[in-house]
Structures are given as structure tokens and as C-alpha cells.
Design a protein that fits this description.
By secondary structure, this protein is mainly α. It contains six helices and two strands, in the order βαααααβα. It comes from Devosia limi DSM 17137.
């Protein structure tokens, strides 16, 4: 005999939030100034002016807010800057994730190329790099880019705090009835009409 269990829907709904990307997430994914400098030196890439990038973006956001000051109220300015800073943070986080994947692929390719019995991983023809070398160079490029975007995001956050007067936090959107599709909601409304 089979026994069925019924689950009861709770009458109180808990609000669930779609989490935004935080600065800490960016810092975990993107290289810091020291690591970016090591990458640049090891691969012959330009060494970035990290402080300069950060200061420039701080100035950019501050000057933008100054120019909009008369046209926007306090709350409108906060919302506007929230979105702009969120875009910088999201871009840096995406670059950091891409960098992490590139590093993983470079490590895998390098480990495979160390195995002498594998023909597909041997160095390229004379004058060409091996696939593993190309992956390492690509990961290095992505690391420098991710670092630059991290510095831009950090500068934007400092400017937000200066203009708004409070720390920047990612926007968290409330998810209404998670898991329920529009079709299901429509069906419930239609069935309710029958009484």
C-alpha cells in the first residue's frame, strides 16, 4: 500500500532576494595590484597604473554626480549611482570569472603538455607557440583586464560613498513567489474565478 504525503503551503511567505554582486566577490575573482604586476612582468605585458585607474573612475563618477546635481533629487541620484556602480562591479566580476576559467584551462593544458607521451600537446612548428603557451598568455591578458576593471569598480564605489554619504551595497531584487511561472499564476486566477 502506498502512502502519500501532502505538503501544506505556509500562509506566510518569506521574501527571497536575488543577490547582487558584491565588491568582495570581485576581489576574490580579480587579481590585486601585486598579482597583476607579477603577471605583467612574467608575460611582458604593460604594468597598469592601478591607483591611477581607481582615481580616474572615482573622479569620473563624482564629476558625473556634480553635473547632474541640479537635475536630480537626492533619492534619484542615489538610485542612478547605484545602477552605475552596480554595472562597474558586475563587469569586473564577469571579467574575474572569465580570468579564473582561463587560468584553469592554462593549468590543464600545461599539465598535459608536461606528459611526453602525448603527441597532441607537443610544441608547435618552428616559430609558433604551443597550445599550452597560448592559453597561458591568454590567461595573463585576462588577468590584467580583470585587474583594470576591479580598480575601476573600486573607484566607482569610493565615489558613490563620497556623493551619497553611505556605503554602496548591491541592489537585491525581491523575487515574488519563486518557482511559480506566469502560466501557473494565470491558471490559479482563472480557477479562482469559478469560485
Amino acid at each position: 500500500m502506498t502512502r502519500t504525503t501532502r505538503t501544506t503551503a505556509s500562509s506566510s511567505r518569506t521574501a527571497q532576494f536575488r543577490k547582487g554582486t558584491t565588491l568582495e566577490m570581485v576581489r576574490l575573482a580579480c587579481p590585486d595590484a601585486n598579482q597583476a604586476a607579477m603577471i605583467s612582468e612574467s608575460f611582458g605585458l604593460p604594468i597598469l597604473d592601478s591607483d591611477g585607474i581607481r582615481a580616474l573612475h572615482e573622479r569620473l563618477i563624482t564629476e558625473t554626480a556634480d553635473s547632474l546635481g541640479e537635475g536630480l533629487g537626492e533619492r534619484a541620484m542615489q538610485i542612478h549611482l547605484q545602477r552605475i556602480v552596480g554595472a562597474y562591479v558586475g563587469s569586473a566580476h564577469g571579467a574575474g570569472q572569465f580570468y579564473s576559467r582561463a587560468v584553469t584551462e592554462a593549468r590543464d593544458a600545461t599539465a598535459k603538455s608536461a606528459n611526453d607521451a602525448r603527441d597532441e600537446d607537443v610544441g608547435g612548428p618552428a616559430g609558433f607557440d604551443s597550445a599550452a603557451q597560448r592559453k597561458r598568455e591568454f590567461a595573463a591578458d585576462m588577468g590584467v583586464q580583470a585587474h583594470a576593471l576591479r580598480m575601476a569598480a573600486e573607484g566607482a564605489i569610493v565615489a558613490y560613498e563620497h556623493v551619497v554619504g553611505e556605503s554602496w551595497k548591491p541592489f537585491e531584487r525581491a523575487v515574488e513567489n519563486p518557482g511559480q511561472t506566469v502560466d501557473r499564476k494565470a491558471a490559479e486566477l482563472q480557477m479562482a474565478a469559478f469560485g
